[in-house]
């Protein structure tokens, strides 16, 4: 496989992953996130702060890169870290 073919496949994989993530970030996901945040605010305020920051970063990422063809790997890695914080 050529270098260009590898790059194209990597780009397509990244786009597929982004689309899958966007499908998960529907209103139902946001509603569940708010319920989780409510529970954390009552029981673990420090965790609630981290959760809210990660949720904000996740949505910021989605709105900023939704039309980009190429996203830096470091940016995607940061997204994964924020998403894991929400689980």
Structure in words:
This protein is an all-alpha fold and 87 residues long. It has one domain. The chain is built from four helices and no strands. The chain has helices at 3-24, 27-43, 45-65, 73-86. The longest helix has 22 residues, at 3-24. The radius of gyration is 15 Å and the shape is elongated. The protein starts with a helix and ends with a helix. The model has no long low-confidence stretch (mean pLDDT 82).
Structure, briefly:
The protein is mainly α. It has helices at 3-24, 27-43, 45-65, 73-86. The chain has one domain (3-86).
| Percent helix | over 70%
H/I helix tally: 4
Task: Evaluate the radius of gyration.
Answer: 15 Å
Largest sheet: none
**How many E-type strands?**
0
Secondary structure category? mainly alpha
Q: Count up the domains.
A: 1
Low-pLDDT residue spans: none
Envelope shape: elongated
Q: What is the end-to-end distance?
A: 37 Å
Q: What's the helix-strand series?
A: HHHH
Mean pLDDT: 82
Q: What fraction of the residues are assigned to beta strands by DSSP?
A: under 5%
Keywords:
85% helix, 87 residues, mainly alpha, elongated, 4 helices
List the helices and strands and how they pair.
Layout: H1 3-24, H2 27-43, H3 45-65, H4 73-86
């Amino acid at each position: 496989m050529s270098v260009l073919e590898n790059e194209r496949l990597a780009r397509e994989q990244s786009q597929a992953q982004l689309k899958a993530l966007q499908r998960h970030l529907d209103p139902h996901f946001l509603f569940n996130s708010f319920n989780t945040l409510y529970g954390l605010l009552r029981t673990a305020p420090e965790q609630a702060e981290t959760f809210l920051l990660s949720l904000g970063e996740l949505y910021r990422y989605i709105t900023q890169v939704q039309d980009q063809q190429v996203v830096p790997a470091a940016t995607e890695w940061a997204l994964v870290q924020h998403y894991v914080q929400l689980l």
